[in-house]
């Protein structure tokens, strides 16, 4: 009841006008949430940064999308081998799911790049949109093997030459490695990126693939 207190002070002669005004109108502050594990902070309104535009982005966002398309494309290449080589029904089902989910994500990410006049690093198949193919050499600045989790040419050749239980084991081991790399890339974007859409996508990819790593490890233990 600051207003009531100020009125009473004026009627009884208690306190100067300046003191009364300060008590009636406390200084405004803004509570700024801290990072996980850190305390909140209070800042003056004029020190609060203005909200970002929803589609603001930086180089980290664009690099993440471009790299993740190439990363996903290798997962599709691995999964395409399963129908002719896998023995375990669970591995077949997993490969089919990864192919469908990551194929759709590739097209969504390609749309983001195209919407920002940026090159798409793989050629996309027409039709159902689930099968990107060869990387476009002039659209990507990085060696794919430099990305976290990517299988080497030797690993891909070994996977392609395998069949039966050997293929199942190599596929699960390789895809666990691959998923761990995607989780790393997604975690790094949380620090470096600024675009709401890419942050949301990175969170989804990181959480989904982390959960899938646990399931694949269980499958591998059961082989």
UniProtKB/TrEMBL annotation:
Residues 1-31 have a biased composition (Low complexity). Residues 61-220 form the DUF305 domain. Residues 135-144 have a biased composition (Basic and acidic residues). Transmembrane segments: none annotated. InterPro entries: DUF305_CopM-like, Ferritin-like. Residues 1-54, 123-144 are annotated as: Disordered. This is DUF305 domain-containing protein. It comes from Isoptericola haloaureus.
